[in-house]
């Protein structure tokens, strides 16, 4: 397939079904996916904020907490203490760096989201959400659970960074990791069950928002330069296939 510049610039050869065609085909789907991520992520964070506003005035354990506590009995089992060893901020940061590094060659906006999202979720939880809600357990701020926020955020980053053919495996592993942390902090009686549930929602929501926003920001850059994302991808593909750089400007 030969692409011809209407202004008379030399044509660039683009292989049919090559990188440019794939990029152009993926762009609309990725744009819709980013919009869904922003919507779902905002909804989850808003839900956590709404429940947090309720607990700011009525912080005591409620019926939901009581029902879940009948299912998750108190325990100091190594099965739970081992899980919480993964809660530390350093673990979240290292995990984010590794996931971002693996994603960078394939998807730079998503790599940025994987690098920034989990640590940001943890910071917002500890420095904003917990002090604003003020719910405590054993004299320590507890809503939402920071341990669960970190686990859910890191698991979400790993899932969205996993290639499509392995995505289901990523979902299973990430879900087990995040739920293991949530059950552990409840079984150890470090948090109310609603703290842990809010942590799951908050961690997932923040990473989805960052990922959607990162793609939207990246997609808007070619537009500010006068190109659509699809055209920018076509030009990059032509250069990669031997175009030798962007076509020269037509003579004046």
Account of the 3D structure:
The chain is mainly α and 252 residues long. The chain has one domain (29-221). The chain is 71% helix and 3% strand. A two-stranded antiparallel sheet has the order 1-2. It has a two-stranded antiparallel sheet with strand order 3-4. A hairpin with an 8-residue loop joins strand 1 and strand 2. 38% of the residues are buried.
Number of distinct beta strands: 4
- What is the subunit arrangement here? single chain
Arithmetic mean pLDDT:
83
Percent of residues in beta strands?
under 5%
Main β sheet profile: 2 strands, antiparallel
| Rg, Å, rounded | 23 Å
Structural class: mainly alpha
- Biggest sheet: strand arrangement: 1-2
Percent helix range: over 70%
Order of helices and strands: EEHHHHHEEHHHH
Unreliable spans are 1-6, 225-245
Count of helical stretches: 9
The termini sit apart by 28 Å
List the helices and strands and how they pair.
Layout: E1 2-3, E2 12-13, H1 19-57, H2 63-71, H3 78-84, H4 89-103, H5 108-133, E3 136-137, E4 140-141, H6 146-161, H7 167-187, H8 193-224, H9 229-243
Antiparallel strand pairs: 1-2, 3-4
Summarize the structure.
The protein has 252 residues and is mainly alpha-helical. 71% of the residues lie in helices and 3% in strands.
Give descriptors for this structure:
252 residues; mainly alpha; two-stranded antiparallel sheet; 3% strand
């Amino acid at each position: 397939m030969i692409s011809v510049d209407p202004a008379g610039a030399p044509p660039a050869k683009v292989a049919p079904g090559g990188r440019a065609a794939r990029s152009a085909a993926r762009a609309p789907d990725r744009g819709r996916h980013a919009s869904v991520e922003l919507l779902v992520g905002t909804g989850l964070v808003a839900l956590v904020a709404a429940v947090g506003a309720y607990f700011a005035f009525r912080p005591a354990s409620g019926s939901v907490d009581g029902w879940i506590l009948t299912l998750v009995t108190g325990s100091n089992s190594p099965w739970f203490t081992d899980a919480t060893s993964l809660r530390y901020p350093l673990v979240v940061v290292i995990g984010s760096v590794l996931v971002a590094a693996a994603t960078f060659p394939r998807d730079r906006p998503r790599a940025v989201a994987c690098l920034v999202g989990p640590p940001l979720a943890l910071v917002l939880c500890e420095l904003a959400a917990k002090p604003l809600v003020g719910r405590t357990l054993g004299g320590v701020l507890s809503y939402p659970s920071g341990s669960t926020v970190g686990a859910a955020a890191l698991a979400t980053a790993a899932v969205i960074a996993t290639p499509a053919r392995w995505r289901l495996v990523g979902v299973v592993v990430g879900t087990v990791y995040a739920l293991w942390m949530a059950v552990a902090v409840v079984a150890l009686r470090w948090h109310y069950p609603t703290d842990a549930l809010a942590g799951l929602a908050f961690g997932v929501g923040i990473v989805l928002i960052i990922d959607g926003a990162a793609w939207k920001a990246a997609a808007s850059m070619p537009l500010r330069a006068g190109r659509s994302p699809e055209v920018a991808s076509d030009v990059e593909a032509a250069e990669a296939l031997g175009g030798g750089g962007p076509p020269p400007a037509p003579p004046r």
